Amino acid sequence: MRALLVQFIVAAVLIGGVLLFTRFTAWRSARAAQQRAAVQKKGTAAAAAVASRIRSPSPPPLPLPATEPVPVRTASSPHLPPGGYQPPPASGPVATPVRWVPEGETVTVAGISFNGGLIYFGDPARNREFRDEPAVIDPTLAVDRQRVQDVAWSASYWPRYDRLLPTDRTLFLNWLSHGRADGSVAIGIVFLFYYGIERRILVDAVTDPAARAEVPRLLAEVDRLRRIYVHSAFHDYSGSLRDLAIALYGNASRFRATATLSPGNMPTGMTIVLGRLVGEGQALPAVLAFDWARCLDDAPRQSAFRLVEAELEALFIARYTARYPTGLVISAPKRQLSIEHRGAAGNRIGLRLTVGVPDVRGISAPQRPLLQLLQACLEDLGALVRVRKRERPTALEVAAALPAELRGSGANEGMKPLYDLMDGALKSTPIGVFAGDRLLTAAGVLAGQKWGKRECTALLSALDSIGIGVEPDVRFDGPIVDATKSVAVFRLPDDAARSPSANYRMGQLLLQLAVAVAAADGELDEREMEEALQHLDRLFALEPTERLRLQAHLAWLESAPPSLAKLSNRLKSLPPEPRRALADVVVGIAAADGRIDPAELRTLEKVYRALGLDAATLPADVHRVQTGVAPRPMQPTTATKPQGLDVDAIAAKLKETAEVQRLLSSIFVEDSSMPLVDAVTPSVPTYTASPIESANLPIAGLDAAHSTLLRQLLAHSSDMVDRADVERWCDPLGLLPDGALESVNEAAYSVAGDALLEVDECISIRSDIRDILTRSLEGVPA
After folding, report:
1. Fewer CB within 10 Å, N or C, the chain?
2. For the residues 399-406, what does the mean pLDDT come to?
3. Of the candidates 264, 436, 481, which has an alpha carbon nearest to the alpha carbon of residue 361?
4. Could you tell me if 481 and 529 lie in one domain?
């Protein structure tokens, strides 16, 4: 019994110990749990306190943009509202859904007020669609106004308002409160505001009519910011947005791209506009056609036309309008346009847009003619590019380099004095005569500037290109323009010759002689001179432009008639043969109508005396002409051709009178500082020309000077020519060597199908092309 009691006591003790240990263990675990809960509670409270003063830690930064990163520029606003750090009230501001704040509504954040509107305002947590929108101004976030004066903008790429430091928020809000016009702030501040405008246009306006109605005002704000903040990335993004908005909501026919245009890179806005026009069956406007051509894959890069961009556009538009008076209409392709727009905000890097218009990017039919037109226009502006590369080109040089479509009083403001002078001189008459210094001054020739044949030839060629003809003209055997003497000017048609034909040269020579003879008796009789001019026109069957130039030449001669005495003295110094040949020509002209009246005989006697010939032989000479020994009149070949002279026979006579011709010309150019057009220096190789060639007829479209240079090259004894020799040949002809050689090669292409010259330090003449050109010249009809 006792042993049983002992066992019971031992068991009870053991059970009690186990229970006590179990309760102790449970108490200790509960105690530890309470301690952990207390620590966690304190940590949460501390974190909440810190969060009230400092924003929550930033998530990992977004990847860098694929395009040019936005440079961070340190700046602080010079205008800070009073006060220091402004944490939200203990109870916190009332959280309201995000809304668009229109222009004019006042908003206050942490004591900073602004009424410019055009922002998103509210708590993004209340609107799921705005939780990823960087531009939303959340009034519940902290703002630090105390330390902002000493802190620069620190946000990196693609700033978000909810991830800014409190000081950065203050900088942004201060910029808003002072009218968004401080040009010294970091560009990231401008971008953050711009993100809101971008969303309003690309997202809200698609479905919200009120937002769509705001688009013009939003674009005006974008334009204002672009004027203040000259930053490449901002201008690229904002320009692209501007184009896209106008393309989507504006007048497609008046669209003009803001974004930079380059080959193979058509802006999104232009793609949409082209699709709208094609889809609606509208014609393509000229300006939009020009922009489209610039974006094609094979279009020239801007560096090729940087110096002539405005002229290239004007020329393209002029020729496009001439080719397509009502505009080019393009058939709509079946494929619809779907594009991806690269926005500025980080959440709009790739924004897919389905516009519902035809996609014109893949159609080639209209692209080919536009590209060809653009390339042709640029090629025709090559001369202007070369002029613009000079150090100080004159207004006349620029005007002369313009294609015909761009010439006129409005094309070059520097040409206004010259155009005004011409308009005044030709207001009521086809030919105007005034002092040479007025022409030189209006053309930009400066006093004391080097002035010789080369400079005068360049001036007259430039005047030709803008439709102004001048007499005297060194290219037509005249003297250089003299500031102390008169000039005659006239409107020069586009098809006017730039060098004298054989007929014109004979007519001009005899007109000079006629004026000198007539002036010897006293005052010139204008009626008689006009009759003489008509007589020469009829005999030599002059072209209309030649008749006009000869009339201007007569007006110039009448302003200062040549001296017959001086002419006579010089003619008498020549051998008898050329003087007799010239007399035969004069008699032949007088007898061209089959009779010589007494007045004509008296004039012929004066000519004979001027030539130092015995006037007693005149009747016999007249008889020889009338019996067919001398040059005979030509019979008209068609019903419309006037009766003329036997030009072949007279040309043969004038070949004998080459010295006479040069001497007659020298009467008018004796004071010139440069050689005559047809003077030849001793170092120039001689070339035995046919009678018609000695009259310097043009070759393959070349003028007289270039034709002379070509003959000299063909007559050269070697296949190699020193550049110094070419320069020496070009100088008396008034030509610039490089341009002249290029013109010769172009003429060779037209005749022989290849270039005559290979131009380097030494100039090589291709013998096969030389032979072809030589045979071609020998085959020119006399």
Report:
1. N
2. 85
3. 264
4. no
